[in-house]
Amino acid sequence: MKKGRNGKDYYSFELQTDEGKLVRSVGFDKNTHAKVNHYHMTGSPVKLVNVNKSKDQIFINSTSSIFEASRDDVKFQKMHDVNSGESSVAISSSINIKLEQLQSLSTNQKVNVEGILSLGLEDPKEVSMRDGRKGLVKEDCVIEDETGTAILHIWQNAIKDCKDGVAYQITNLSVKNFSGEIFLGTTTETSFDKSDFQKEVVKGKEVLSDTEKEITVEEFKLVDKVSSFHMCQNKSCNKRMPAVEHGSAIFKCEACGTSQKLKHVKKAISARICIELEGKDVWLSSFTDVMTTLMSKAGVQKDATVDEVTNALQCMENIPIKYNVRSKYILKAF
């Protein structure tokens, strides 16, 4: 961002609003600047809401919003190699942010953060990555600057490069969103460089220790992805079994190839449940043990249909639960 004559920070860029038409746009807010930078880098069409327009300029302030638009809504060809000489939107793969800005950023946006790193005691987890390979991730990490804290997932080789309680300038982190929870994750381009950043009171360990909470939920606001399925009894596999054909007594696990008798196969059930916490919608995952308790409290039989389970959950009120703040798993229903 630039400094104006009146001392205020601003940024400017040119927005294509029609075939061959460019409009100078000026913004004064750091959060919208971060979004503009992201959409500029990805080449995504945008929709501006609550902006001030004059004949030849658009003004974006703190009450304005910028969203990614559908490419189908754009009825004109994108202009290439536009260079007005006054765009101040940095052409960079990542932007410097303060953690207080995190909630306003876009998923997968690349950012740089300076702060103190706190590491938990959990061992890195082995997970399957999108390309099918196995990878390691350490999820109990917190990065903290003067404006706030954020959960940080550190992947692969970066895990061994990080030390607890050390201040770092971290570049090329990716903004992530899981069940409405915004956090940061390392990428293959992420680098950790020690910095001189200091903070009197570091709260990272406190954030990491406060992982389980007991609350009473007024209602389950939304229920989604209720799934009833059988689990493979081969302990080295333990994956979902295919749908059982009616009348079949024996069927085969497609994952490990073992044949099993239906009467010995364990039935499992899971669901995604939305609750309201401090005015925000939070999605929690519920698995067999918890679902069994909830179904019992709701008076639903174990062989109930998915629709019957869904309807029963949404009729429940004042439900005491314990959940994990980081994983967003319901650990227990009372």
From TrEMBL:
SUPFAM superfamilies: Nucleic acid-binding proteins. This is Uncharacterized protein. It comes from Paramuricea clavata.
